[in-house]
Inverse folding.
């Protein structure tokens, strides 16, 4: 475990209502997103976990500390459901308490990068009726590299992340399948198990 790690015991008092960073079956469009998150979030946006690696698992991924980046989504709990959501996610991720020997994942606090402040104006739908464009000076963001090419382009926030527990991490480092681009895709391993 690292010094930067902070956890709370499941069912115990909540230290801070931090957002959650998800990177696997809880992503929008994945089956666990609807099962566990529908109606329980007030906001979701793309985000990146720096200094981490992503490994393929049996139907779901594992993130561990490392020299890479994991792409996912930052979730903010809806008002009044934070404790419920925290308990559901702890149960799903098999987090029994900080350092518990039967943990599948550890819930830890990490700095999460939010690429840019939000939607780029060029990505908006143009109005139905519009006058011809006028020559203008190009804003700097139009020439900026894409999010994937510009680490740390936006702000950072502290969030809960479920990282593989110690025993799982050891196993992944010695024989796991690394996902080099750090993006979870359902059914990514040809011939491997599909995600539920």
């Amino acid at each position: 475990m690292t010094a930067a790690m902070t956890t709370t015991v499941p069912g115990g008092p909540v230290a801070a209502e931090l957002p959650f960073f998800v990177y696997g079956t809880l992503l929008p469009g994945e089956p666990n997103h609807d099962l566990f998150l529908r109606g329980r979030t007030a906001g979701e946006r793309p985000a990146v976990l720096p200094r981490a690696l992503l490994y393929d698992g049996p139907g779901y991924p594992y993130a561990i500390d490392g020299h890479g980046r994991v792409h996912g989504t930052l979730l903010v709990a809806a008002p009044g459901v934070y404790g419920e959501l925290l308990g559901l996610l702890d149960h799903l991720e098999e987090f029994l308490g900080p350092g518990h020997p039967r943990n599948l994942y550890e819930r830890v606090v990490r700095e999460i990068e939010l690429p840019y402040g939000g939607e780029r104006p060029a990505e908006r739908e143009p109005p139905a009726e519009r006058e011809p464009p006028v020559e203008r000076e190009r804003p700097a963001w139009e020439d900026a590299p894409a999010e994937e090419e510009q680490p740390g382009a936006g702000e950072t926030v502290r969030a809960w992340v479920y990282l593989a527990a110690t025993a799982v991490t050891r196993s992944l480092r010695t024989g796991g399948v690394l996902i080099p681009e750090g993006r979870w895709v359902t059914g990514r391993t040809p011939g491997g198990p599909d995600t539920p």
